Amino acid sequence: MAEQHDRHIVTLKDVAAASGVSISTVSRVLDDRTPPSRSATAERVRRIADDLGYRRNMFASGLRRGATGTIGVLVPRLTDHVMALMFEAIERTARTRGAFAVVATCGDDPVEEKRATETLLDRNVDGLILATARLDDTLPASLRARGVPHALVLRTDGLSPSALGDDEAGGYFAARHLVDLGHRDVAVITGPWFTSSARDRLAGARRALAEGGIEIGEDRVISTGYGIESGHIAGRTLLAHESRPTAIFAANDNLAIGVVAAATAAGLTVGQDLSVVGYNDIPLAAMLPVPLTSVRTPFDQIAASALDLLGESAGTVTRALPTLIPRASTTAPKA
Questions:
Q1: Domain HTH lacI-type spans what residues (predicted)?
Q2: Half-sphere exposure in the Cβ direction for 98 (13 Å, CA)
């Protein structure tokens, strides 16, 4: 799956591919704890690493040197499928690197976020991964000022090292799919406006609709929470219009599930009377009575990037490209 980087981070895998040797060989050659090999292969690997601009990840090195080997992960809540999937991906990836991930939850409360962060730091974690960033959040700035290795996932404040999906591209894919099916009256339910993900997904959707010559009115855009109940309320509001939309793009799958419930309660059949697109492609999406079209987020890729970013300088952002997964919840509008 493709990945776009604002600044490409050269990894051991990159050096191995360019050198024609295994990753373990590159790791051994570039390990400064051992006397440097003078073999032709070692010299070539070091030269290629220099040419590519490889820089040893200090966090990963610290783990190998016997630090606590523990990574703190902060999420709003684990009842949110996306946050649970993100944590599992981080924990899984950390395990392959000889580390262990622990999680704390804080809701959407900045005070609780700070408290949970200090609790993790009190347990001597080697770094923090935050899935909680608000655009107005002061916590990342505090961590930068204190020199705490950290990375943001799924959201960004535009300053701290961040690993996320390309939300603008994902929003574009979702709305473009609806435009290509022939929909001209499309509504969008975004997440909280304090999140970069909500803003970027809406921006992508607007771009796709504009390309199709469709102007989306403000009455067709609702910003709300990311929960199922929020989607249900927003769905009821949109479907109560005398001239209801023929398609709704919901900026996460929970919102989409809420919309499906609202449509069903209104006597509409999703995939016939109304097309619905979700986002993140949680496992439940494919198992609904009408399988949900969704934009798949590459959680494992984001997790790997986040671990690579721990200890990196501010301003480094990686964006993994999502994929649209069409299913039965989207069809051409009725004539």
A1: 10-65
A2: 11
Q: Identify whether the C-beta of residue 304 lies closer than 8 Å to the C-beta of residue 151.
A: no
DSSP-derived 3-state class of residue 25: helix
39 Cβ neighbours under 8 A, 6+ residues apart: none
**Rounded Cα–Cα distance for residues 99 and 65 (Å):** 12
Q: What is residue 158's predicted lDDT score, i.e. its pLDDT?
A: 85
Query: Whole-model pTM above 0.90?
Result: no
d(CA 3, CA 139): 27
pLDDT at 65: 45
Side chain identity at residue 4, one-letter code:
Q
CA distance 63 to 98: 8
Residue 7's pLDDT is: 43
Element (H, E) at 325: strand 323-325
- Whole-Å CA distances, 189 to 199, 210, 227, 297, 310: 11, 17, 11, 18, 33
For the CA atoms of 169, 171, 177, 183, the dihedral, rounded to the nearest 10 degrees, stands at: -140
Report how far Cα 8 is from the mean position of its chain's Cα atoms. Answer: 17
Q: Tell me the CA distances in angstroms from 207 to 5, 6, 86, 171, 255, one per residue in order.
A: 21, 21, 28, 9, 21
Which residue ranges form the domains of the chain, and what is each CATH number? 3-56 (1.10.260.40), 67-165+299-321 (3.40.50.2300), 167-297 (3.40.50.2300)
Please report which residue ranges of 147-248 form alpha helices under DSSP H.
Answer: 167-181, 196-211, 228-239
| CB-CB contact of 155 with 172 (8 Å) | no
Q: Indicate the residue type of 164.
A: L
**Locus of tokens 């492609």:** 281
The predicted pLDDT at position 97 comes to 87
- CB-CB contact of 277 with 249 (8 Å): yes
